[in-house]
Amino acid sequence: MTSPRPPTPPRQGPIFIVGAPRSGTTMLQYRLRNHPRISLPTGESHFFIPLYRNQHRFGDLSRLESIRAVLQAMLAQSRNFLETDLFGLKFDVDRLAGELHAEGRHTMPAIISGVFERNARGEGKSRWGDKTPYYVMHIPKLIEWFPDAQIVHLIRDGRDVALSLFGRQHDFYVYNAYFAAEYWASYVEKGRALGAELPSAQYMEMRYEDLLATPEHTMRQLCDFLGETYSPELFAVASVDDPGKTPLVHAPLKADNAGKWRSRMSAAQVRAFESVAGDTLRELGYELTTAGTPPALAVKAAYRLHNRLLTGFWRRAKGILA
């Protein structure tokens, strides 16, 4: 008689939600942070890659002062995130440095995970994650530091992404559909190429449109990938007096939030977007409404110049107003 196989232990590696900006990663972040085991801060960390690039500057991380310097650099980079988006931890540099040093956390990933693990424990949870969209361009660095990490790449129709970028154009410096297409495609194509180098148990592509159309089925697939038990709590939402820049995260999912580009983008904008990103849209199964013919070199140059001029103007204007 064959003895029953022991249950598979739950995964403990970090979860990274990545993708092109304005692809619904915040929506997914807020849903997944409802899971009883998963801790996801509500903001974006942004400090992983700067620390990766500059780790040599901190010297010997077995020294208390070096750990303190790392925490200070994290604070200088992402003060708002560390002071307002961690709900299980007060980010006290001196106290944290002492505790991490005493625990023997003498590498950069050990220091970072020590912060996130503490935050998770403070929330009564056992697994941590992070949502910072641009990390999709740096997946190998995440895996180098956290070999047991899992990557969730959320993909949204680039034309809807363009509409969302236009709504915050002075934050992302995207001022026309041609440049929006280049911007979106660069993130999606790079993320997919890097993800293809990982085993299927470590990298998952997820459609924003699927999350809206079949939310329970899609989240069950995500939980299966993460090795977590599905929980109906994932779809709990709480209304707030000040929803901030992302009010949809505080409302139930709505299928009609997909495909808005069909009525809100002009024919010229759609043609410009599809002329750049048509192949990527097709590869992902999104229907094109034009031939997707690449524009002439002069047209490309005009779009890029337009975006560059407006970017320069608004950056100077921000500097004056700051």
UniProtKB/TrEMBL annotation:
GO molecular function, one term: transferase activity
UniProt keywords, alphabetically: Transferase
EC number: 2.8.2.-
InterPro entries assigned: P-loop_NTPase, TPST-like
Keyword Transferase: yes
PANTHER family reported in the protein's UniProt record: PROTEIN-TYROSINE SULFOTRANSFERASE (PTHR12788:SF10), PROTEIN-TYROSINE SULFOTRANSFERASE 2 (PTHR12788)
Protein name per Swiss-Prot or TrEMBL: Sulfotransferase
Organism field: Thiobacillus sedimenti
